[in-house]
């Protein structure tokens, strides 16, 4: 068969590669972003309950009303926005599906999409599969702040979307209210969509405020917000998230979603709808992860790695320039095989494979495992 690949330059995602390598070599896996601690037993019991009480057939295409209502209540509480749960919220197969369905619904041939690199690795393939053109703008280490002058230079009359991600994976940077003002200014009077990836909304530290686009009326009118239950409730394997967008945009996203995944795991939706009724279950997550960040920093600060600032997410970047001049892909493999700690090389987050000798650690692990990993990292 002669296959004309739609994604000729795409291989297997680095997260799958590094997690497999970690398993093959028995390394501590600080690569792919997932917790090694368990889902709250209350939530597990709720799932069990809904399976046993026969909530096992198709959910409505957009998600069960109870869960969409619970999400709307949560967004009102957190960001002061009144959402129409019927028309503006759609349950998806994780945030990755939310992002993919949104891009597929809104981007057509030749549309330009601005992304900030390092960028999460699903954005560019989703743009390319839809014949859009990714326009990367570089964020520079160590602060990874957005250069808005460059954004202004990059916007053309073909720009259809800007993908915004705060707290930012992989850098752990967060966008400020000044960034929001710039974004409002640049998009005002245009037809540019904002795809706001906010899966780490609760993982923001040192008292900073999460700058959700949901806080800003004018921005929200052109926005699509991708969110994740997997990241929030330590259940990345459940593959459940949601997308929020004004009704006219949601209508288009739903047209793709219904023929992509159709609808999402029903018992999980019932369980999550009940579980969301207690805000403390998500309001304390920043303290929980901040103490892990601090423990990890403290445990590896005497190593030869140079740590970069982490204001949000459960990722921490580190430069190994004082340790090796190997490229970061080789260094990440070496770390996994020889040091016993698997990490992610940051060149995987750039379209041109930029290598600044920086790797990413995931600190969503038990304190015990973090200390074990830190002991190995200090040996390097
Ligand atoms: N978001 C996770 C990370 O950055 C990985 C998700 C995935 O493996 N697709 O590590």
Question: How do the helices and strands follow one another from N- to C-terminus?
Answer: HEHHHEHEHEHEHEHEHEHHHHEEHEEEH
Query: If you compute it from the alpha carbons, what radius of gyration comes out, rounded to the nearest whole angstrom?
Result: 20 Å
Q: What is the structural class?
A: alpha/beta
The CATH superfamily of the largest domain is identified as Type I PLP-dependent aspartate aminotransferase-like (Major domain)
Oligomeric form of this entry?
Answer: single chain
The total domain count is 2
Give the strand tally: 13
| Ends apart, CA distance between termini | 48 Å
Give the count of helical stretches.
16
Mean pLDDT across the residues is 97
Shape: globular
Helix content: 40-55%
| Major sheet | 7 strands, mixed
Range of strand content: 5-15%
For the record, the CATH architecture of the largest domain stands as 3-Layer(aba) Sandwich
């Amino acid at each position: 068969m002669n296959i004309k690949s739609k994604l000729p330059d795409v291989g297997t995602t680095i997260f799958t590669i590094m997690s497999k390598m970690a398993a093959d070599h028995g390394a501590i896996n600080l690569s792919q972003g997932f917790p090694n601690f368990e889902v709250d037993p209350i939530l597990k019991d709720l799932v069990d309950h809904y399976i046993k009480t026969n909530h096992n057939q198709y959910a409505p295409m957009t998600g069960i009303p109870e869960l969409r209502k619970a999400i709307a209540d949560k967004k009102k509480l957190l960001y002061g926005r009144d959402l129409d749960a019927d028309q503006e919220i759609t349950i998806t197969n994780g945030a990755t599906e939310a992002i993919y369905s949104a891009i597929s619904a809104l981007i057509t041939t030749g549309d330009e999409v601005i992304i900030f690199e390092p960028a999460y690795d699903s954005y560019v393939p989703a743009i390319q599969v839809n014949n859009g053109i990714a326009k990367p703008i570089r964020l520079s280490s160590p602060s990874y702040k957005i250069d808005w002058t460059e954004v202004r230079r990059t916007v053309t009359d073909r720009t259809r979307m800007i993908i915004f991600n705060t707290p930012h994976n992989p850098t752990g940077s967060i966008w400020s209210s000044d960034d929001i003002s710039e974004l409002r200014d640049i998009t005002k009077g245009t037809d540019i969509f904002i795809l706001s990836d906010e899966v780490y909304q609760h993982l923001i530290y040192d008292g900073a405020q999460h700058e959700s686009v949901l806080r800003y009326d004018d921005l929200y009118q052109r926005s699509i917000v991708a969110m994740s239950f997997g990241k929030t409730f330590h259940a990345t394997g459940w593959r459940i998230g949601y997308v929020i967008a004004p009704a006219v945009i949601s209508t288009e996203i739903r047209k793709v979603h219904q023929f992509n995944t159709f609808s999402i795991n029903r018992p999980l939706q019932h369980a999550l709808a009940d579980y969301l009724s207690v805000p403390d279950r998500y309001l304390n997550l920043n303290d929980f992860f901040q103490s892990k960040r601090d423990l990890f920093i403290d445990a590896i600060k005497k190593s030869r790695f140079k740590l970069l600032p982490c204001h949000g997410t459960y990722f921490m970047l580190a430069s190994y320039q004082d340790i090796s001049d190997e490229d970061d892909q080789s260094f990440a493999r070496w770390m996994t095989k020889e040091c016993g700690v698997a990490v992610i090389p940051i060149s995987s987050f750039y379209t041109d494979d930029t290598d600044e000798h920086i790797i990413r650690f995931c600190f969503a692990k038990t304190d015990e495992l973090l200390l074990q990993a830190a002991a190995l990292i200090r040996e390097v």
